[in-house]
Amino acid sequence: MLKDKDKYKIFSDEEILSMILQTGDNNLFEVLRDRYYTKVLEKCMGMLKNRNLAQEFTDDIFAKAFDNFDRLRNLASFSSWLYSISYNFCIDYLRLKKKLHYPEWDQLNEITEIIDETEEEIADYDYDKLLVVLDQIHPEEKALLMMKYLDDLSIKDISNALRISESATKMRLKRAKARVLYQYKKSYLTK
Predict the structure, then answer these.
(1) Helix residue ranges per DSSP H, 50-165
(2) How far apart are CA 106 and CA 73, in angstroms?
(3) Coil, strand or helix at 169
(4) In contact, 180 and 125? CB cutoff 8 Å
(5) Domain 100-191 in CATH 3.40.50.150
(6) Distance between CA atoms of residues 136 and 179, nearest Å
(7) Each residue of 16-48: pLDDT tens digit?
(8) What is the pTM of this model?
């Protein structure tokens, strides 16, 4: 247990990670856990829709991050890396649970007439209604949109998180955005 955690709150994530590597004091990781626990829990809740499972996954995600934080040196930021682990953890679970991978799902749910209809911005729509629509699309598409528009991750960070190429990330993001806009219009603007 780390004593006097408050004195480390002034340090950036990268400074704390550097201190861990320099001093070998792994208890400093608690500062990062405290800093990001609620955000990771909310991401898991948004993906899993189950509070108990989300809490369990959040604990597992931090354990995984702790076990692998030495790999972070070549990545952009701790938060981006942690959110990538979070989304991946949830997506992997949902893939196993549903036993339907994105490429198969995309083929079954193709909406070809809307693929190029992505000039509109998602931010222009009612947030609460968008949340409802997000629950109707594939978890991988939901994660893509959350990473891009909620967490403001770069295409490179998203592609690393989902373990796909940057061009595949761009295409899936375009499809996800188009599918959400289509579903939104179908559900809320045609009534």
Answers:
(1) 51-68, 78-98, 102-108, 127-134, 139-145, 155-162
(2) 35
(3) helix
(4) no
(5) no
(6) 10
(7) 888 888 888 888 999 999 999 999 999 999 888
(8) 0.73
Cα separation, 134 vs 59, whole angstroms? 25
The ranges assigned to domains in the chain are 1-76, 100-191
**The tokens of 4 are what?**
């006097």
Side-chain-facing half-sphere of 111: CA atoms under 13 Å: 18
- State residue 6 phi and psi, 5-degree precision: -60, -30
With CA atoms as reference, report the closest residue to 70 among 116, 28, 21: 21
Distance CA 63, CA 82 (A): 11
What pLDDT digit, counting tens, does each position of 56-94 carry? 999 999 999 988 877 766 556 888 889 888 988 988 888
